[in-house]
Design brief:
By secondary structure, this protein is α/β, with parallel strands linked by helices. The chain has six helices and nine strands. Helix 1 packs antiparallel against helix 2 and helix 2 packs across helix 3 (about 60-70).
């Protein structure tokens, strides 16, 4: 919780500098899984597979961030090629140009994250947005439930908007 709160404070920094905005979004994408429970056996410690859609903006930022920091659960980052599905992913960052990938994730235990203005309305679970120069996020709770994912109440409280009602 403290890590996410620290990130929320950092998100208040001006996002006018695209590099800073990208760094904050990178940390959000890497921290979200810590606040989500997948419908697998309790205590599952296999690495989480975080897939990046072909048009993702992160470059090597996510891979570099994963390799040096301890996490509750190890994360493996994989870039998808055009035409590849997200079905084997635990977390999928879906860029605006790749929104059709949301169809593959529908009703599957895949935490989808994106930064398209209508991401949640198009079937995504967590949408990153910049509001008044700050990186924020919104959550589509109903879609998370359909996917069998349980979103921690701490994350819900930090969201700028929660669709689908509170648990």
């Amino acid at each position: 919780m403290a890590a996410l709160l620290g990130l929320a404070v950092a998100a208040g920094l001006s996002a006018q500098v695209p590099r800073l905005e990208l760094a904050i979004k990178t940390e959000f994408v890497l921290r979200f899984p810590e606040f989500v429970e997948w419908p697998t056996a309790a205590g599952d410690q296999r690495p989480l597979l975080l897939c990046l859609s072909p048009a993702h903006p992160f470059g090597q930022n996510l891979q570099a961030s994963v390799s040096g920091q301890p996490r509750a659960r190890r994360i493996v980052v994989r870039e998808l090629r055009n035409g590849e599905s997200v079905r084997s992913c635990d977390v999928a960052y879906v860029a605006s140009a790749d929104l059709s990938l949301l169809n593959d994730a529908a009703n599957r235990p895949i935490l989808t994250v994106g930064d398209h203005p209508k991401f949640c309305q198009r079937g995504g679970i967590i949408n990153l947005l910049v509001i008044d120069g700050r990186v924020r996020f919104e959550i589509e709770l109903l879609q998370a439930r359909r996917a069998g994912l349980k979103v921690d109440s701490q994350l819900l409280r930090l969201a700028s908007k929660v669709y689908g009602g509170l648990p």
